[in-house]
Structures are given as C-alpha cells and as structure tokens.
Design goal:
With 430 residues, the chain is α+β, with helices and mostly antiparallel strands. The chain has three domains: 88 residues, Alpha-Beta Plaits (2-Layer Sandwich); 104 residues; 156 residues, Gcn5-related N-acetyltransferase (GNAT) (Aminopeptidase, 3-Layer(aba) Sandwich), CATH 3.40.630. The chain is built from 13 helices and 18 strands. An eight-stranded mixed beta sheet has the order 11-12-13-14-15-16-18-17, sandwiched between helices. Strands 1-7-10-9-8 form a five-stranded antiparallel beta sheet. Strands 2-6-3-5-4 form a five-stranded mixed beta sheet, with helices on both faces. It is globular and about 70 Å long.
C-alpha cells in the first residue's frame, strides 16, 4: 500500500519551477501550503452522532485494559447548560479515559470542548467518538496525539508569539502550528483588477466562515486559511487574528543573522543563516556564477528563467530560505523549504566552485530540522535521476528514504516520523 501511495505522489508532484510559475500567475493568490492534495485526514462519519475519526483506527478490541496507553486529541460540541461537561467526563471515564487538559470554545448554540486524552492503547477512535456521543457530544473529531501536545495551550501560544516576534518568516509556521493541518494562502498587496472586489470584501477585522477564515495581511492584501475537515471556532479566529496583528505591529524584521558558523573538512569557514528579500541581488549574482547545468538541475527548466523565481523564493510568506555565505560575505548556496500539507519539499543550489565540500548536506540538514519543528511527516526532493549530489545529501540525513522515478524525474522522500534526525557534530565533515 505504501508503494502505491508513493507512486501516486510521484505522479502528482510538481517541480519547483512549475509551482513557482503557478504562484506568479495564479489569480487566487499565493499559497503558503500549495494544496497539492487534500489536507483533511481520512474521516468516517458516524451516522448517529456526526462523529469523525481523523486517523485510521486499529481494530476494535473486545475488552479494554492491560496494553499501555495512547494520547488522543478530541474535539466535541456539547450543550451550554450545567452538567454537560460532567456527563461527557463520566462517559469517557467508563472507558478508562483520562482527560489531561481541556479548552472550551464558546459558540452561539453550545460549547466546543477540546481535550487531550490518555486512553488504553487498544481503544480505537470509533469507541472514543461513541463514548463522547453517549456523554452528549456531537460533531466529534478525534486524532492521535503525542508528547508534544502535553504543553498547555497558553504556553504553546506564547511560544508561537515569541517565534513570530523574532522572525517574520515564522508567521505562516506559527499559524500552521496554532491551527493544525490547514491550507494558508496569501493574496498579494496589489491584486489584479478581477480580485479588487474580493479584496474590498475582507474588512479590517477579518471574516470567519467556519471552515475558512480571511484576515488582513500585514504585508498587504489578505490571508485565507482553510480547514475543511474541522471548522474554525471564534476562539481560534481570535487567536489567529492576534498573531497576525502582532506581526503587523512589529513591522519588517529578520531573525538573527547567523544560524551557525561551520568549518568544512578543508578548513573553509562558512555561515548558514536565514535569507529574505534583502538577499535578492546576492542571489542573482550567485545565479550568474553558476553553470547552466547546475541551474538546470535546480530549476528543471530553461535557465534564463531562473532569476524570475527568486523574489518569491526569498519571501518568508511562501516557505523558508537558508543561505550559505563565506567568511568574506559572498553567498555561495541557497536552500529552500516549501510547505506542502503534511509534507515539505526541499531544494538546493550550490555554486559550482563550492560543490563537493559538504555544503549541500549541511544545508539540507538545517532545512530538515526546520521541517521537523513544524511536525511535517515527510520531506521530499524532486530532482533528476542523474543528480548524484542531491541523492548523496538525502542519504546523508540518516533517515528512511523512499525513491520513485517517473520519466527521468527522481522523487526522494525522507520519513521524519519514522526516526529522529541523528545528531551530527558541527565541525564534522559532510
């Protein structure tokens, strides 16, 4: 089944050049998550309660107990009346389910209770949904959780606000972590004439339409966030609006210049740092020093069009970009990370004179660590089968890899959920 899924992914993946071309010309705006496939997890409606299970559940067990525990996130709607929460807790307690944390989201016709649960390991999602229905819950949504979810909500929100305050590029990442799996698109500040009416339809305070929220973008235009599998609550809308307002009040800014000074095996010193639009001219100069073959491997198309993608690639709104520069300040490599639902795509460009010194592996490692911080399930690279440098860099991650070849295009997928990224000394060669 995994092989069939990967083959379908390989057939539908688009190259960076194709996707960037779509971003430049797309009338609907520039996506922070490109929507290549549905962001909603598989669901199985319960005919009686409207409950959905967000992840495939193990077979139902005849009896519960004695097999360890598992963490789950549950969201269910109850009536806004005394005793509703008590009834829900009692129904879960019958199944030996412990409520570790609880948040409430008031609605006009009830209250959404969002809970972190510890349940017997053999208890499937369907049983949890049924227990919620017994306790008076409706529109129940259940998803597997992990130890990262044990952080209480105020602490997590403050952490996301801090990251956003330190680096403007963190805003889309913070929104994704705040709202879960969702598609985020940014409409440019100067929309085409056909889009101006839509721009005027978004008031300063934003719009909430349950599975879709629209918010004014501090960079201009507006942001659209979609999550069809789980409607947004007014509480989530207020949190997202506050995060964007924080970004607007702080204005343009970038993270601290250095992510780390590294020494290559040959003794050459380099610095890996975040890159943004201020690096546009240096990136164009890098393109000019690269051979046509190197640019073709990176952009999978006519090399004379390479420069037109840089402005988008260097914008913090559409992903993350890291730059490698020498101690003299010359930019010699770029690495890009593009959000793609539960996955992330990586791409590298290393100047010819600096290739085969371990820069690509170092840069790729930083990008994968950034992807892991957002809880991406996989990281993949789309390249040519002859690109041995990219293959070596992906293998150097020390992660489980899947390979798919489609008409000369190689898609290499590293599974982040299968193993932790192995630690590597900063001075070690790549």
């Amino acid at each position: 089944m995994r092989d069939v899924t990967l083959t379908k992914r390989a057939q539908t993946r688009r190259t960076w050049r194709q996707r960037l071309a779509e971003r430049i010309t797309a009338p609907h705006g520039l996506p922070w998550g490109p929507g290549r496939h549905s962001h909603a997890p598989p669901t199985e409606p319960d005919s009686d309660t409207g409950a959905t299970a967000a992840v495939p559940a193990p077979p139902a067990a005849a009896a519960v107990g004695g097999g360890g525990t598992a963490l789950w996130r549950m969201r269910t709607t109850v009536r806004d009346r005394p005793g509703s929460l008590a009834a829900l807790c009692a129904a879960l307690a019958v199944r030996q389910v412990d409520i570790l944390s609880l948040q409430t989201h008031p609605l006009a016709d009830g209250t959404v209770d969002e809970m972190l649960l510890r349940a017997p390991a053999e208890l499937p999602a369907e049983v949890l949904s049924a227990a919620a229905a017994t306790g008076g819950g409706r529109d129940t949504w259940v998803e597997r959780a992990d130890a990262h979810d044990l952080v209480d909500a105020p602490t997590r929100v403050l952490g996301l606000a801090t990251r956003t305050a330190l680096d403007a590029a963190e805003l889309p990442v913070a929104l994704r972590q705040l709202l879960g799996r969702c598609t985020i698109r940014s409409q440019p500040a100067e929309p085409a004439p056909a889009q101006r009416d839509a721009a005027g339809a978004v008031p300063a305070e934003g719009l909430l339409e349950e599975p879709v929220m629209r918010l004014r973008d501090p960079a201009g235009g507006w942001v659209t966030v979609e999550r069809p599998h789980l409607p947004f609550t007014p509480t989530e809308f207020a949190r997202a609006r506050a995060l964007i307002e924080l970004d607007s009040q702080l204005g343009p800014r970038a993270a601290a210049a250095d992510q780390g000074a590294l020494t290559l095996p040959a003794g050459d010193g380099i610095v890996v740092r975040g890159a943004d639009a201020s690096d546009l001219e240096a990136a164009r100069a890098l393109h000019a020093r690269c051979s046509r073959a190197t640019l073709a491997l990176r952009y999978h198309g006519p090399v004379h069009e390479a420069d037109r993608y840089l402005e988008h690639l260097l914008s913090p709104r559409y992903g993350r970009t890291l730059a490698v520069q020498t101690t003299s300040g010359q930019l010699v490599a770029l690495g890009h990370l593009l959000w793609d639902g539960e996955e992330a795509e990586v791409a590298l460009l290393v100047e010819d004179a600096w290739q085969r010194r371990g820069i690509g592996t170092r840069l790729l490692r930083h990008l994968v660590e950034l992807a892991a911080e957002t809880e991406a399930a996989d990281v993949y690279a789309v390249t040519q089968a002859t690109n041995t440098g990219m293959v070596a860099a992906m293998r150097g991650l020390g992660l489980p890899l899947d390979y798919q070849v489609e008409e000369g295009t190689l898609v290499i997928t590293a599974q982040l959920t299968a193993a932790a990224l192995p630690a590597r000394p900063r001075s070690e060669g790549c």
